[in-house]
C-alpha cells in the first residue's frame, strides 16, 4: 500500500476477464486487462495509450470501479475503493468523474442542458433553487458555452459543444480526478485542440488530476505528464512523456511513435509500421504478447513473459531486449529490417515533433 500522499489513484495488479464464468456461460475468456499496476500522481495528467482493443477503456473503468475487477485493487487517496459499500461508493463518485468519447451517447437526449448539468449538483446536494441555477450558468461559462443555451437539448449542439456539456456535467460534482475516455477522438481535428486546451485550463483552475485514455499519441503528447503504454491487456512501458517521445524503450512504443500521422507533402499515404492487427485477447500469444509483431523478437520472447523492469530515471519497460535495442543506437528503431520507408517516416515524425515543440501547439 502506498503511503506517499502525492499518489491520488493507484491500480494494483488489476485484472479484468470477461466471460468464461460458469458451466452455462461462454467458455471463451476475454483477457481485457491482465495484471496492470500504475500510480497516478495528484495534479498530473496521466495518459493511457495503445491501439484499439488493448484494454485502455476497461482499465479506465476499473480505476473508477465502473466495472468490478476480476482481481487486483484500486486505491484512491490510499484507501481501497473495492472495499467500499454502495453508499460510500456513491459519495466517492462525486470526486471521480469520467467523460466519454461520444458525448451524444452519454447525454440524455430528453433532458435539457440545464437539467443534465444540474443532476449531479442535486444528487450530491451541493446547491438548491436559485443557487443551483447560478452554478449551472457558471459551469456553462466555465466550459465556454452561454447560459442562454441552457434550455436547449443536446441534439441542438455541435460535437465540440456537446463535449463541453459533458465536461460541465463532470465538473458539476466538484471532482478531484477526471478520466477522459478518448475525449477528443470523435471530434474534428480543429475542435480537438480546443477541447484539449479547455481540459488543460480546467485542470489548472480547479487543481484537477486528469487520466486520459487515447489511441492517438499525437493527442496526448502535449497534455500528459506521464504515459502508460498498453498492449493486449498489459502495461508494456511507463514513462514521463518527454522521455517516452525522445527515447521510446519498448519496441511497441517505438512502432506506435512511427504510426503517428505526420502531415507531409511527400508522404501522403504513409505505410503503417505496425503490421497486422492486435492478436485476440481471448488467446494472447505466449511469452511476450508483442512478439508476433515485434521486429526484434528472438526465441526467448516466444517462451518467457517479460517482467516490467525499472530502467533509468524510474521508467518501466517490459521487454527482454530493450537494452540491446537501445545499445544498437539511433538506427535501432529502423532495424531490423532496415526500411527506407520507416527511416523516412521517422525523419518526418521528428521534424513534425520539433515544429510542434516550437509552436507549443497541443495535439497535431
Ligand atoms: N463487456 C465486455 N464483454 C466482453 N468483452 C469486452 C467487454 N468490454 C470490452 N471487451 C473486450 O476487451 C478488450 C479490450 O477492450 P477495451 O475497450 O478496453 O479496449 P480499448 O483499448 O479501449 O479499445 P477501444 O479504443 O477500441 O475501445 C476488447 O477485445 C474488447 O472487445
Automatic annotation (TrEMBL):
Record domain ABC transporter: where: 9-257
A molecular-function term among this protein's GO annotations: ATP binding
Pfam (any one): ABC_tran
UniProt key word Nucleotide-binding: yes
Entry's localization field: Cell inner membrane
Record keywords: ATP-binding, Nucleotide-binding, Transport
InterPro entries named among the record's database cross-references: AAA+_ATPase, ABC_transp_ATP-bind, ABC_transporter-like_ATP-bd, ABC_transporter-like_CS, Oligopep_ABC_C, P-loop_NTPase
Keyword tRNA processing found: no
Membrane topology summary: Peripheral membrane protein
NCBIfam families, A to Z: oligo_HPY
Membership in a protein family: Belongs to the ABC transporter superfamily.
Protein name: ATP-binding cassette domain-containing protein
Record organism: Microvirga terricola
Amino acid at each position: 500500500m502506498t503511503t506517499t500522499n502525492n499518489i491520488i489513484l493507484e491500480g494494483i495488479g488489476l485484472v479484468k476477464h470477461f466471460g468464461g464464468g460458469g458451466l452455462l456461460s461462454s467458455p471463451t475468456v476475454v483477457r481485457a486487462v491482465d495484471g496492470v499496476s500504475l500510480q497516478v500522481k495528484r495534479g498530473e495528467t496521466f495518459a493511457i495509450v495503445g491501439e484499439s482493443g488493448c484494454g485502455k477503456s476497461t482499465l479506465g473503468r476499473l480505476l473508477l470501479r465502473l466495472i468490478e475487477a476480476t482481481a487486483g485493487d484500486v486505491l484512491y487517496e490510499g484507501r481501497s475503493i473495492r472495499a467500499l459499500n454502495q453508499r460510500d461508493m456513491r459519495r466517492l463518485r462525486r470526486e471521480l468523474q469520467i467523460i466519454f468519447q461520444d458525448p451524444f451517447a452519454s447525454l440524455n437526449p430528453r433532458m435539457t442542458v440545464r437539467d443534465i448539468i444540474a443532476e449531479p449538483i442535486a444528487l450530491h446536494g451541493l446547491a438548491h433553487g436559485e443557487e443551483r441555477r447560478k452554478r449551472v450558468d457558471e459551469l456553462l461559462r466555465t466550459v465556454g458555452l452561454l447560459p442562454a443555451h441552457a434550455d436547449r437539448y443536446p441534439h441542438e449542439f455541435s460535437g465540440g459543444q456537446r463535449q463541453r456539456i459533458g465536461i460541465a456535467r463532470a465538473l458539476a460534482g466538484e471532482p478531484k480526478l477526471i478520466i477522459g475516455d478518448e475525449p477528443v477522438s470523435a471530434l474534428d481535428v480543429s475542435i480537438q485542440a480546443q477541447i484539449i486546451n479547455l481540459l488543460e485550463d480546467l485542470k489548472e483552475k480547479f487543481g484537477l488530476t486528469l487520466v486520459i485514455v487515447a489511441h492517438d499519441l499525437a493527442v496526448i503528447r502535449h497534455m500528459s505528464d506521464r504515459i502508460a503504454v498498453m498492449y493486449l491487456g498489459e502495461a508494456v512501458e511507463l514513462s514521463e512523456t518527454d522521455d517516452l517521445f525522445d527515447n521510446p524503450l519498448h519496441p511497441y512504443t517505438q512502432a506506435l511513435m512511427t504510426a503517428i500521422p505526420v502531415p507531409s507533402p511527400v508522404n501522403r499515404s504513409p505505410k503503417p509500421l505496425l503490421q497486422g492487427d492486435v492478436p485476440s485477447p481471448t488467446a494472447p500469444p505466449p511469452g511476450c504478447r508483442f512478439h508476433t509483431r515485434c521486429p526484434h523478437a528472438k526465441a526467448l520472447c516466444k517462451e518467457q513473459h517479460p517482467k516490467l523492469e525499472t530502467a533509468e530515471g524510474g521508467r518501466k519497460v517490459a521487454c527482454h531486449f530493450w537494452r540491446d535495442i537501445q545499445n544498437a543506437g539511433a538506427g535501432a528503431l529502423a532495424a531490423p529490417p532496415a526500411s527506407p520507408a520507416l527511416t523516412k517516416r521517422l525523419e518526418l515524425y521528428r521534424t513534425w515533433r520539433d515544429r510542434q515543440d516550437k509552436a507549443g501547439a497541443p495535439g497535431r
